[in-house]
Amino acid sequence: MDVSKAKGDNVTPNPGGQTDKPPSAHLVESMLPKVVKRRVHALKRLQAQCANIEAKFYEEVHELERKYAALYQPLFDKRRDIITGTVEPTDAECEWQSDMDEEEELAAEVKEKASIEDAKKEEATPEEDQKGIPEFWLTIFKSVDMLSDMLQEHDEAILKHLKDIQVKFSEPGQPMSFTLEFHFEPNGYFNNAVLTKVYKMKSEPDPSDPFSFEGPEIIDSDGCQIDWHKGKDVTVKTIKKKQKHKGRGVVRTVTKQVPNDSFFNFFNPIKASPDGEMDEDSEFSLATDFEIGHFFRERIVPRAVLYFTGEAMEDDESFEEEELEEGDEEEQDDDGDEDDDEGDFDPKKEQPQPAECKQQ
């Protein structure tokens, strides 16, 4: 929904039956004296210049991100090695300050179960020595709503082979972009060691509407060709159809491949239309693709362990609940105030616009 349009459509009823509607920007400007309007135009030129400076600011931010990505990478490489079992962390590296209250609560349960577990030890099957953290990335995919919506059951066996996800930023002098790299161990599904998704960005005001600039935005994305092993492509499925010959009446069965829902369709994204003309479904798919790419870059890759444990999602949920509770209290206060005129517009009752992930 166009937020600016929605705000302009707010109408405050009055007892006389007439409606007072805020004047549009063009109407306000047209009502100004010519000498004042002239000065407003000068301010608009200054504002457009500010937008151009802001665009340069974000270009430098992108360079700063690229610089610090190189500092993060050794830590992310160590994370990958621990996940895959290539490296076993030392006792010192595994030390982590736990919540003492939780430890005390668990202590009693452990003591109670100790005797039972000791009795079962002789009968229990020895646990295999597991390497690393099994199904680390798959667990994240299954736990995060945005990713689980894309995940199909036939994808899970493949994602068990996912070793790492990395973000790479475009080099200086190149068009602004970032690349998601999905690193896989050798598997029986495809030959690629790395699957990539490039998100192209721009950080410049639109000459026809410079005041709409709010920072870099994703404008397109490119996937990669997956070299599937024969019969292992989960992005298509084979269906059989019976066909009857019109003249002879002979029935034959033909098979053909049709698209199949899969996370791996992520690497074959819908393309932005050069002329900007797209149907509603295509626009939604494109916006969703941009949002997912941004989410991988800003949340999943930097904070992977917290999404694995669920702590990151708990933080997000707590924030949303706090926002909701504040809104509920405001509504209750409004409803309980009998002195307010029912027809008066109250900004507290206006539905808040959803927080959108900037297509950055």
From TrEMBL:
Keyword Mitochondrion annotated: no
Subcellular location: Nucleus
Skewed-composition ranges (Acidic residues): 312-344
Transmembrane spans: none
PANTHER family linked to this entry: TESTIS-SPECIFIC Y-ENCODED PROTEIN
Family, similarity comment: Belongs to the nucleosome assembly protein (NAP) family.
Stated name of the protein: Nucleosome assembly protein 1-like 4a
